[in-house]
Design goal:
Distance between the termini: 33 Å
Oligomer: single chain
Strand order of the largest sheet: 2-1-5-3-6-4
Bound molecules: zinc ion
Strand content: 5-15%
Largest sheet: 6 strands, parallel
Structural class: alpha/beta
Helix content: 40-55%
Number of strands: 6
Number of helices: 9
C-alpha cells in the first residue's frame, strides 16, 4: 500500500539500521526531525499504541505525534492485553478513556464532545476532574484492526471516530481511503475538535511532518534524476 519510493526506503532497512540514529526521534541522523519539534500543550492525554512494524519505519508519524504533544505516551506492541502501563491507564478512575477507532458502534468525536446529539454519551456528565484520554492505534488499518482484536483490554472501551474534512498531507505514505489520516494528523484533528481551532498550534505540530515529506520528495526527485542522467554534483 506504499509508494515505490517508500518501498526502497523500507526494504533498505538493513542498511539504515547500520547508520547512526538520533536517540530522540530514532531516525537516521541525516533524517532527524528533532529541530522541527515545538511541543504543544493540551489537557487531552494521547496514548499511542504503536504496531512493532510501524516502530521500525523511518517514515512514520507516531513518534512525531508523541514528541509533539506534551504528556503524550507511546507504547509499542501487538497485544496489549497484559500491558501493565496500558491497564493502569484504563483502570484509572481519574481518567475518562476513549479508543479512537472507526466502526459501527463508534461515536463521532465532534458530536460527542459538542453535545449535538443528546442520544450519545456526554463526557461532561462524568465525574468532574477526570482527564480525557484518547487511545490511538498507530499502524496500517489492517495492523490497527489486528491490534484491537488481540488486545482484549481495549474491547470494553467506548469508541470514537473522526470525520476529517481534509485529505492527508502525508504524501510519502498512501492512505487506504481519502478520509484516512496519519497518526500525527489524527491528533491535530482531535485537538481541533476538543481544544478548538488554533492554526499556530496546528502549524507547530505539523512542521516536522511537512519538512520530512518535503525532504523525502526532494530525495526521490534527485534519485530519479540521477537514474536518468547519472550522479549529480552539489
Ligand atoms: Zn532526532
Amino acid at each position: 500500500m506504499f509508494g515505490s519510493f517508500l518501498q526502497r526506503e523500507t526494504t533498505g532497512c538493513a542498511t539504515l539500521a547500520a547508520r547512526p540514529r538520533c536517540e530522540v526521534c530514532r531516525c537516521p541522523v541525516r533524517a532527524c526531525w528533532c529541530k522541527d519539534l515545538q511541543p504543544v500543550e493540551t489537557a487531552i492525554e494521547f496514548v499511542i499504541l504503536q504496531h512493532p512494524f510501524e516502530a521500525r519505519r523511518t517514515v512514520s508519524t507516531g513518534r512525531m505525534a508523541c514528541l509533539g504533544v506534551r504528556g503524550a505516551k507511546i507504547f509499542t506492541g501487538l497485544d496489549f492485553t497484559g500491558d501493565r502501563r496500558v491497564n493502569e491507564i484504563i483502570a484509572d478512575p481519574d481518567r475518562s478513556v476513549w479508543l479512537l477507532s472507526p466502526g459501527a458502534d463508534a461515536v463521532d468525536l465532534a458530536s460527542l464532545f459538542h453535545r449535538n446529539d443528546s442520544a450519545v454519551p456526554d463526557v461532561t456528565s462524568e465525574p468532574a476532574g477526570r482527564r480525557t484520554t484518547l487511545i490511538i492505534l498507530d499502524g496500517t488499518w489492517a495492523q490497527a484492526r489486528r491490534m484491537r482484536r488481540l488486545s482484549v483490554n481495549l474491547h470494553p472501551l467506548r469508541r470514537v471516530a473522526l470525520a476529517p474534512a481534509q485529505p492527508s498531507e502525508f504524501a510519502v505514505r498512501r492512505q487506504p481511503e481519502a478520509h484516512c489520516l496519519s497518526t500525527l494528523e489524527t491528533i491535530v484533528h482531535c485537538l481541533r475538535v476538543l481544544d478548538g481551532p488554533d492554526p499556530e498550534r496546528d502549524r507547530q505540530l505539523m512542521r516536522p511532518m511537512r519538512n520530512m515529506v518535503a525532504r523525502q520528495i526532494e530525495i526521490a526527485r534527485i534519485a530519479k534524476l540521477e537514474a536518468e542522467t547519472g550522479p549529480t554534483c552539489s
